[in-house]
């Protein structure tokens, strides 16, 4: 490349953490899962990525191969690489978009971390049986707010074995779901919905009566069989409902 020639601007930025192929993989994954690169979007060529990041074809190919194996990309010889057509549905399956729900009601959204601490998996994380005792865990207690008022409470455990950088991350700037999905593929998800009675602290934060019903969403995710996160979302029961729809006739007429 000539001294006066600038590398191509491909709209990707690296985070500077770890091997270069992992940085490229995370950057591309983030564009896909954020929706900025929709299904069918043409990914920059290997040559463009090589020039943009001053690296080798092997490094770029390794990053794209990992994303292809995860089902996020489709690579075809002489046709280039595109975002897989199934990416959108896989990315959102089982993930409740609290921010979207709050903003759809016309309220300004914010995410507040109320408490953040590190523990070893054990009695304090007994709800998450998938992790081995002694595994370092980051515990987040947070609130999803509309106009600054808590509307949904979140308790989250993140395995620092799977995502060690989480301990240094400001999750009020980038929400945990987005941050984790940009770095680790969700290869397995378990989602449970149940009812609970509001504790005194929950009732105070949500502005409801103690022992009033809460709708609770429990979610666990894995990446390549490694437990990544356990999340509990608590909604005031009288003000919320979970709705799902299945229409088998649609698949027959498609």
UniProtKB/TrEMBL annotation:
Classification via InterPro entries: Bact_HTH_transcr_reg, Chorismate_lyase_/UTRA_dom_sf, Tscrpt_reg_HTH_GntR, UTRA, WH-like_DNA-bd_sf, WH_DNA-bd_sf
Identification of the protein by name: GntR family transcriptional regulator
Superkingdom in the source lineage: Bacteria
Taxonomy of the source species: Bacteria, Pseudomonadati, Pseudomonadota, Alphaproteobacteria, Hyphomicrobiales
SMART domains: HTH_GNTR (SM00345), UTRA (SM00866)
Organism annotation: Mesorhizobium opportunistum
Swiss-Prot/TrEMBL keywords: DNA-binding, Transcription, Transcription regulation
HTH gntR-type domain segment(s): 18-86
